[in-house]
Amino acid sequence: MATRAQAREAVVTLLYAYDSGNENILSEAPNLLEEKKIRNKQQEFALGLLNGVLGALQTLDDKISLHLKEWDIERIGKIERAILRLGVYEICFTCTDAPVIINEAIELAKLYGSDHAPRFINGVLDAIQKEHKCSSVSH
Description:
The chain is mainly α and 139 residues long. The protein is globular, with a radius of gyration of 14 Å. The protein has 7 helices and no strands. It has a single domain (4-137), classed as N-utilizing Substance Protein B Homolog, Chain A (Orthogonal Bundle). Residues 6-130 form the NusB/RsmB/TIM44 domain.
């Protein structure tokens, strides 16, 4: 059975594909998750995150942009952007504890991001969770 960490990893790859121009990713997501053996509750979890991130994309990008000193969100690598979007979505719209979210994001950044990505992602997500101007709506 897949873990939540594996589900998050799959969501990041799906967000990366979406950001790379595959806008049909939502319809393909269940099959792609199944191929990665992410099933049942973990697939529901992953699809909930994917739908949530894509549904709140502009809000998430706005929150991220506030914490990018002299950077434009489009200049961030696609994988780092996907990790940040997922992390900010979870911090702002789920009941998962922020330290768990940030740790998972850092681990994903170590796996897929550039050398500076873990520290960068940690800084942005930490600032957003401290600010806590996010909605406390649970999905």
